[in-house]
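just leaving the lab so this will be short. what follows is a protein written twice so to speak, once as letters and once as structure tokens for the fold. can you read through it and tell me how you think this chain folds. anything you notice is useful, everything is just below:
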Amino acid sequence: MTQSSSTVAVSAAESGSPPPTAPVVFLKHPSCIVGPDDDVRVPPGSVCTDWEVELAVVIGCTTRYLASPDHALDHVAGYTVSNDVSERAFQLEHSGGQWSKGKCCETFNPMGPALVPADEIPDPQQLRLRSWVNDEPRQDSSSSDMIFSVAHLVWHVSHYMALQAGDVINTGTPQGVALSGRFPYLAVGDVMRLEISSLGTQQQRLVAAEPGDR
């Protein structure tokens, strides 16, 4: 599983960072993937667990060194809803500048409820993304606000790794996350709900992860 993050402009501004001039790419471990309604396990010592509703792009065929973004969407099998759960202290203070420790905890990428074929989504840049925590609204934006389009992301990542059928690219999250300081971080017992138009809704409860959990 491959993951890429390209935050939308409003989210970059919300965090106090300038918009990136190129996509920021990181990897997530396969153990992050769980179902759309599975529990998310808060790791021991976490105080900054955060939600991120994202459009997930599922690759349909081997994709490498694309000449331009023009035909990049031909390599996409479909789209789904992704929650790129992040532990911000692990990400920003423990990872040495490369984010992986804050992104790779077990259960930190619920996906679904369905893989919607690419030909059913005529324009992936016209989707509404929303999230709630305990039924309180958090994020409400559009994929049209992304700094880098889906086609640009697929083209860009293809120059740094050979994408395979089934690989997933997470495309970044809009404003409204806890990192902004506007909302509290997640705690055990909280419930996240995420929705993308035409792709469906997912929901997870936060539970405590215990050492030795399997």
Observations:
- The CA atoms of residues 78 and 117 lie 4 Å apart.
- The first helix runs from residue 9 to 14.
